[in-house]
Model the fold of this input.
Amino acid sequence: PGLLEPTSCLIRVAKSAATLGIAIEGGANTRQPLPRIVTIQRGGSAHNSGKLKVGHVILEVNGTTMRGKEHREAARIIAEAFKMTDKDHVDFLVTEFN
Amino acid sequence: REKRLTLPPSEITLL
Done:
């Protein structure tokens, strides 16, 4: 990988609590074109996993790209991934770089 | 001129 290539990281969050417990900002056609985590709530599944961090930019959710998705669409995809009962986890591909 | 300066801020959604 070249120096300018952002490093991405796959993070699996187990559905260990009733909520995912993250707040996101951003989406296509905003200043932050990919959703970025702005809050992680204590006691939520994301907090329990210990791996997602404030500032992480979400590239993919369960293999679905966030690129080109407007804020509400990105939020809907994440919410549905958490609600889906066929999986006990949600996979996030994230990067720390914008 | 940077394009992103003309783009609006995003709303925030709690999930």
About this structure: The interface with chain B takes residues 19-27, 29-33, 38-39, 41, 71-72, 75, 78-79, 82 of chain A (CB under 8 Å). The mean pLDDT of chain A is 94.
